[in-house]
Amino acid sequence: MKINGTPYRSVWRDAQDPRLVHIFDQTKLPWTLDILDLRDVEAVAHAIRTMQVRGAPLIGAVAAYGLAFALDDDASDASLEKNAAFLHETRPTAINLRWALERMVAHLSPLPTHERAEAAYREADAICDEDVKVNEAIGRHGLELIRALWAERRLVQDRINILTHCNAGWIATVDWGTALAPIYMAHDEGIPVHVWVDETRPRNQGALLTAWELGAHGVPHTLIADNAGGHLMQHGEVDLIIVGTDRVTRQGDVANKIGTYLKALAAHDNQVPFWVALPSSTIDWRVTDGVKEIPIEERSGDEVTHVHGVDEQGHPARIRVTPYETKGANPAFDVTPARLVTGLITERGLCDASADGLQTLFPEQAEQPAS
Ligand SMILES: CSC[C@H]1O[C@H](OP(=O)(O)O)[C@H](O)[C@@H]1O
């Protein structure tokens, strides 16, 4: 997407130095556009762990380059195995990380060691290029939902109100995003969309990243407290909810940023369509029951007791919002059972959040046994 008129992806190879990869430091957005140089696997792991780079599809893509860096130094089988495990341990919930690393290992293992580094960079490039195409397709399929709502309601309301949680925009992927891709496309074709942006405590990806993305693209939006969504739904102010996801099970359970489950409950109670946008790399065919089987990342309680922002002079600031002795608990994701999900928006189309729905779109996967 464009930043001040310049097209960007959220990760890209340096034009001069093939062993240099750039990302935005997302912990500095929206206040400064810091471009980070990644040259080694340790820097990639640090960037993922600290959320300088975040978003399920994006951390998979960046981890793929991390593995390429590692093989540039040591292309042995032991190095491939060790560094794939090292990168996999950075964050446990987003399945795209495992998906990307397993794809890289499967692609590279059969190759002679002298060919592995270059092949790794090429495969990481391919993962990025595919992510862009897949997310564009998600946008086109999700756009149909928004078009249908506008056709149905344009005589009785002047806009389509869409609520989203966290950030599943272009900065959470290589480009386009997942949940925001249909919104960008609807806006670009003139459908008057307005987005309720959940702030998304505690890391505030909505307030900091989704608001920034939508504002940069000229999409009307309003920031709301995480707890306001249910009230807006009760008063008919939400026509549609679209969120991203970090892992979908073979029966359609959805892991996403903490607070998503509560939005789904309110949506169910108010008959608001609750759709989840995802690339197929986010489907974990090996798990069935998301609540029981998806590992939920527990992050530092300091992320709850403190907030990051800028002071009146625009200087980055971190302030405590609790008494000094208060500790925080910080589960970073929750799981929404498939029964609360209206449907899934994938690169192959829309489907029910169910085993049958997923089998319809991905018949080649359905035969795989659950682990
Ligand atoms: C397009 S997937 C984005 C997904 O990732 C976010 O998590 P985090 O910011 O912690 O990486 C959030 O769950 C989004 O829905």
UniProtKB/TrEMBL annotation:
<feature type="binding site">
    <location>
        <begin position="256"/>
        <end position="257"/>
    </location>
    <ligand>
        <name>substrate</name>
    </ligand>
</feature>
<protein>
    <recommendedName>
        <fullName>Methylthioribose-1-phosphate isomerase</fullName>
        <ecNumber>5.3.1.23</ecNumber>
    </recommendedName>
</protein>
<dbReference type="InterPro" id="IPR027363">
    <property type="entry name" value="M1Pi_N"/>
</dbReference>
<dbReference type="GO" id="GO:0046523">
    <property type="term" value="F:S-methyl-5-thioribose-1-phosphate isomerase activity"/>
</dbReference>
<dbReference type="GO" id="GO:0019509">
    <property type="term" value="P:L-methionine salvage from methylthioadenosine"/>
</dbReference>
<feature type="binding site">
    <location>
        <position position="205"/>
    </location>
    <ligand>
        <name>substrate</name>
    </ligand>
</feature>
<feature type="binding site">
    <location>
        <position position="91"/>
    </location>
    <ligand>
        <name>substrate</name>
    </ligand>
</feature>
<keyword id="KW-0413">Isomerase</keyword>
<feature type="active site" description="Proton donor">
    <location>
        <position position="246"/>
    </location>
</feature>
<dbReference type="Pfam" id="PF01008">
    <property type="entry name" value="IF-2B"/>
</dbReference>
<feature type="site" description="Transition state stabilizer">
    <location>
        <position position="166"/>
    </location>
</feature>
<dbReference type="InterPro" id="IPR000649">
    <property type="entry name" value="IF-2B-related"/>
</dbReference>
<feature type="binding site">
    <location>
        <begin position="54"/>
        <end position="56"/>
    </location>
    <ligand>
        <name>substrate</name>
    </ligand>
</feature>
<keyword id="KW-0028">Amino-acid biosynthesis</keyword>
<keyword id="KW-0486">Methionine biosynthesis</keyword>
<dbReference type="InterPro" id="IPR005251">
    <property type="entry name" value="IF-M1Pi"/>
</dbReference>
<comment type="pathway">
    <text>Amino-acid biosynthesis; L-methionine biosynthesis via salvage pathway; L-methionine from S-methyl-5-thio-alpha-D-ribose 1-phosphate: step 1/6.</text>
</comment>
<comment type="similarity">
    <text>Belongs to the EIF-2B alpha/beta/delta subunits family. MtnA subfamily.</text>
</comment>
<dbReference type="InterPro" id="IPR011559">
    <property type="entry name" value="Initiation_fac_2B_a/b/d"/>
</dbReference>
<dbReference type="InterPro" id="IPR037171">
    <property type="entry name" value="NagB/RpiA_transferase-like"/>
</dbReference>
<comment type="function">
    <text>Catalyzes the interconversion of methylthioribose-1-phosphate (MTR-1-P) into methylthioribulose-1-phosphate (MTRu-1-P). Also catalyzes the interconversion of 5-deoxyribose 1-phosphate and 5-deoxyribulose 1-phosphate. Part of a bifunctional DHAP-shunt salvage pathway for SAM by-products.</text>
</comment>
<dbReference type="InterPro" id="IPR042529">
    <property type="entry name" value="IF_2B-like_C"/>
</dbReference>
